[in-house]
Amino acid sequence: MRFELFIAARYLRAKRRQAVIGIITGISVAGVAAGVMSLIIALAITNGMQRDLQDRLLSSTAHVDLMRIASDGISDWQTLLARLKQQPHVTAAAPGLYGQVLVSRGAKSGGALIKGVIPADERTVSGLLQQVNQGSAAALEKQGPIAVPPIVIGKDLAETIGAAVGDTVLVTSPQGGLTPIGIVPKYQRYSVVGIFHSGFYQYDSSYTFMRLADAQRLFSEPDLISVISFKVDDLYKANEIGRQIEAAAGQGFQTTNWMEQNRELFRALKLEQIVTFIVLGLIVCVAALNILIALTMMVMEKTKDIAVLMSFGVRADQIRRIFLFQGLLISVLGTAIGLVLGYGLSVFGGHYRFPLDASVYSIDHLPFAPSITDGLLVSAVSLGVSLLATLYPSTSAARVLPAEALRYE
């Protein structure tokens, strides 16, 4: 062990008459540990939120959507769909017809977004139909007219209107027919054949699926669709691929992608992560002040010892390193304890899923995604701040004059 490190370790083992210094040192270690632990847990939660939201968005929606700039829908869509499927980087494509409706059962009702789909195609671009955990979406595969057409709804919407598999719901569309008394909304009864649960409140509370032909009849849109959805081979190049699809589709079309649709959400999560790091990093700064106080008191207590060491030939830079090593030992010990506690609690929280209110947080449990990179960043900040706090007391110790300190001994 180096001489400076040996002396630093001995000084940290305070004697009884130096109990106050020992208590402050313990508080410093605890402060660093608390700051590091809090940062690791907070960053794990924000990483988990971003990961879960992105995974659920990408599993539930397409990467790129193609629509007409005008609101008259896409006609002759079969030919266009077949042509665009051949575009580079496109791995799957599916037609869809969207429309806002009111879904009701008895006195209970809720707003919903209907999507008319061809199930076999829809499953290639969206995973919502694969997340049906009550009933089955197989009825959407049937061809031809059905007296009471099938519909698949989200779990939260089902709870809102009190519907279960096998129940009949009334779907009311504002796109009704013109009568002598004005436009009368169009309505149709549907049978709930399946309920999906994605865990993402936005979808579970408002999305519903029906056969494309049934949606076209409901919205009085014969053989029209409103969107063609695409899966691409590189989701992070969705913007560039979307422009290529838009150019291939021709005049009158525009595309949106998952990054554009959710830009504000991920920007808010990133800002939250930065603010969390800054706020909780103040805990480490407070702990660094404790280190500063502890080492300053140590220097005052050990002035005569420092003078003796210097009279034996110990250089000023070695004295400085003694107190730098003291601050480093406090910081390393606190950081190590904080990392163990932070990662341990994050793993525990990820294993025992703590429930959240999905209507507030969009997801139904608290996610944890601890990152090694975050641990390295937090450790670097903790050690750096703590070492800055040692500069003043270590410099003061190196300036002790042996003759002055031992004059009256």
TrEMBL record:
Keywords of this entry: Cell membrane, Membrane, Transmembrane, Transmembrane helix
A Gene Ontology cellular-component term: plasma membrane protein complex
Domain ABC3 transporter permease C-terminal: start-end pairs: 278-399
Transmembrane segments: 20-45, 274-300, 321-348, 368-392
InterPro entries attached to this UniProt entry: ABC3_permease_C, Lipoprotein-release_system, MacB_PCD
Subcellular location: Cell membrane
Start and end residues of each MacB-like periplasmic core domain: 25-247
Pfam family, one: MacB_PCD
Residues making up the signal peptide according to the UniProt record: none
Membrane topology listed for this record: Multi-pass membrane protein
Record-level GO BP terms: lipoprotein localization to outer membrane
Family stated for the protein in its record: Belongs to the ABC-4 integral membrane protein family. LolC/E subfamily.
PANTHER family: LIPOPROTEIN-RELEASING SYSTEM TRANSMEMBRANE PROTEIN LOLE
Name recorded for this polypeptide: FtsX-like permease family protein
Organism of this sequence: Terriglobus albidus
Lineage: Bacteria, Pseudomonadati, Acidobacteriota, Terriglobia, Terriglobales
